[in-house]
Amino acid sequence: MSDRKKFIYIVLAFVAAYFIPLEHTRIQGAVFESFAMLQEYARQHVLFCLVPAFFIAGGIAVFVSQASVIKYFGAAANRVLAYGVASVSGSVLAVCSCTILPLFTGIYQRGAGIGPATAFLYSGPAINVLAIILTARVLGLKMGIARGLGAVVLSIVIGILMAAIFRRHEEERLPDIQMAIPEPKRALWQDIIYFGLMVAFLIFATWAPGTVAFWNVVYAVKWSLAIGALVLLALVLWRWFDKDEIKDWVRETYGFALLIMPLLFGGVLVAGFLLGRPGHEALIPSQYVEAVVGASPQAFVHLTGIVPGAAQDSIALLWPLWTNFFAAISGAFMYFATLTEVPILQGLMGAGMGEGPALSLLLAGPAVSLPSMLVINSVLGPKKTATYVVLVICSSTLAGMLYGYIFA
Predict the structure, then answer these.
(1) Domain boundaries, position 238
(2) Cα separation values, 57 from 21, 192, 268, Å
(3) Domains in the chain: how many in total?
């Protein structure tokens, strides 16, 4: 970081510390919520979500053949195979928009094309099987099916559009990643077992109880399964990997942690300050959010005091577009830990939120968040990050409107 940037951050911190009105109870509550969310995140998601994800990303960077990444996910790869694999990748990973970041960074830096990489980035948290089953159980079968299908379709659409928009950059980037690749030291099946054991630990360590008997049976023995995966992983490392490879793996993992963790924690603090945790007030009152995403504009009209007439007619006409867009953009800037979006939506729908905006939030919220935007920006740059976020918001908005028109 340059001295100029450090100075700017110091000035901003000083201005915030000097002028923030801490005597106001809402500000005090928002400050408390920001650190409460950070504590909740640190306790529930760092050790058994992010840390395993960092090690998986480090393994991708060190052990995955660059030729394989380019073959299956590169800009010149078979599109059907690349987008097909990327769009369903989240079905085996119970991760949130932040946990997917190390994995996305790993495959992108190894040569994956921007299209398949962003399809993987979106689908990872969006098509979580546990979350979709919970959605169908709590919010209804229609919503669960719409969420699953919508996540697959949107991941492919977003990936294809990203590839088309940045086609020229990908053509310039491709020669930089095509280099001489040494012969692999292990057979492909050995690498598959190595990564499979790490993914198994990630899945079992983060396994949550559900409403289906099978999920509760697995939950009862989750730590036995997770520890078993670790023991087998240690055996695999001892038999198939040398010390230098393991050192490289740890070094890459450490590098991913240094890159992602500071931005991630900063983003969680901001998200907690503005929106708070589920069921807790922060800077932005929850009734304001509920008023602008209701099934009808009546609550919004009452809150704003708009008198009957042309203004109300215009609001009623644009209401489906507005509510779905607001839900999508709100979800995009909020942070949802894995599975927490379902109870949040249950509360919002109970307060009058329409089903279309609920789907928009479900498709945008888990896939992207303010913390993840900061990290994606460090990997892709501001132009690609802004384009990705806009595509997520717009596609989620259209999906919610379509769902509302079909089932309203």
Answers:
(1) 36-407
(2) 42, 14, 21
(3) 1
What pLDDT band is residue 172 in, cutting at 50, 70 and 90?
Answer: low
Contact (CB, 8 A) for 62 and 252: yes
Q: What is the pLDDT of residue 179?
A: 47
Mapped onto helix, strand or coil, the DSSP state of residue 96 is coil
End-to-end CA distance of the chain: 52
Short-list 288, 309, 314, 405, CA closest to 357: 405
For residue 344, give the amino acid letter: I
Distances (CA, A) of 355 to 143, 347, 348, 395, 401: 8, 12, 10, 16, 9
- Asked, for residue 220, whether it belongs to a domain, the answer is yes
The encoded tokens of residue 86 equal 């990327």
- Which tokens is 103 given? 């994995």
Looking at residue 3, its amino acid is D
C-alpha distances out from residue 402 to 322, 324, 338, 359, 399, Å? 13, 10, 26, 10, 5
Structural element, H or E, at residue 235:
helix 222-240
User: Quick one: tokens of 85?
Assistant: 């694999």
Q: Highest mean pLDDT: which of 12-21, 103-112, 280-289?
A: 12-21
Paired tokens of 2: 């340059």
Q: Per this entry, what is the length of the chain? A: 408
Longest dimension (CA), the chain: 77
pLDDT average, residue stretch 20-33: 87
Instruction: Give the whole-angstrom CA distance, residue 192 versus residue 124.
Output: 19
Asked, for residue 165, whether it belongs to a domain, the answer is yes
Distance, CA of 191 to CA of 245 (rounded, Å): 13
Neighbours of 81 (CB within 10 A): 13
Q: CA–CA separation, 390 vs 357, rounded Å?
A: 17
Residue 180, φ and ψ in degrees, nearest 5? -65, 130
Interatomic CA distance for residues 83 and 85, integer angstroms: 5
Rounded Cα–Cα distance for residues 285 and 33 (Å): 13
Is 29 within a domain? no
Is 13 contained in some domain? Answer: no
Residue given tokens 């992602």 in the structure block: 260
Instruction: Work out the number of other CB atoms within 10 angstroms of the CB of residue 47.
Output: 11
